[in-house]
């Protein structure tokens, strides 16, 4: 492992512990705050995520947004490939996808213009630390090369970190929504 890989692994371990504590405490309000933000983008093709492990749950806000336009969830196509997004409906059947994430039973791919992005940690400059696969970085780079694409990190306040280990390929977030605040960059 490289020194940066070791630093990122340590940062992830600490962030996972903070996220678990926040998940266990379940302070309400985050999904409502995310809904308020998304209300300004009604009808814009969007993507959320179906939470795994201790991730914050965006599904209530995604369900609201789905009443106005397409909402998808990420589908991992393979190692080192960008994500694709399959249309999601609140009560539609799901199947198991890679890494324990649920995905729609039937693929209906489209390109979102707004992405609600899961993360392990974030900083106050709009940077995020993900799981290490680079899926969202590759995907955002590809989507942004084609057109304006808004990336909104969704996390618990406890996932904030002062000093994230970053690489040149890391794609910044445009906004972060937590249970107590909305940060814009």
UniProtKB/TrEMBL annotation:
Reactions the enzyme catalyzes: (6S)-5-formyl-5,6,7,8-tetrahydrofolate + ATP = (6R)-5,10-methenyltetrahydrofolate + ADP + phosphate
Instruction: Return one GO MF term.
Output: 5-formyltetrahydrofolate cyclo-ligase activity
Q: What class of enzyme is it?
A: ligase
Respond yes or no to whether keyword Nucleotide-binding is given for this record: yes
Report the Pfam families cross-referenced here.
5-FTHF_cyc-lig
Q: Which UniProt keywords apply?
A: ATP-binding, Ligase, Magnesium, Metal-binding, Nucleotide-binding
Cofactor(s) this protein requires: Mg(2+)
**Name this protein carries in UniProt:** 5-formyltetrahydrofolate cyclo-ligase
């Amino acid at each position: 492992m490289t020194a940066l890989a070791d630093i990122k692994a340590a940062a992830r371990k600490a962030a996972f512990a903070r996220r678990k504590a926040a998940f266990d405490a379940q302070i309400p309000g985050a999904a409502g705050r995310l809904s308020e933000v998304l209300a300004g983008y009604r009808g814009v093709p969007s993507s959320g995520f179906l939470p795994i492990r201790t991730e914050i749950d965006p599904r209530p806000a995604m369900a609201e947004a789905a009443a106005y336009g397409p909402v998808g969830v990420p589908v991992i196509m393979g190692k080192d490939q960008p994500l694709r997004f399959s249309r999601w409906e609140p009560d539609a059947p799901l199947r198991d996808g890679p890494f324990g994430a649920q995905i729609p039973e039937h693929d209906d791919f489209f390109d979102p213009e707004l992405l609600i992005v899961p993360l392990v940690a974030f900083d106050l400059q709009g940077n995020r630390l993900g799981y290490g696969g680079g899926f969202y970085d590759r995907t955002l780079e590809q989507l942004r090369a084609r057109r304006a694409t808004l990336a909104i990190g969704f996390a618990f306040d406890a996932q904030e970190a002062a000093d994230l280990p970053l690489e040149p390929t890391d794609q910044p977030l445009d906004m972060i929504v937590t249970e107590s605040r909305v940060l814009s960059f």
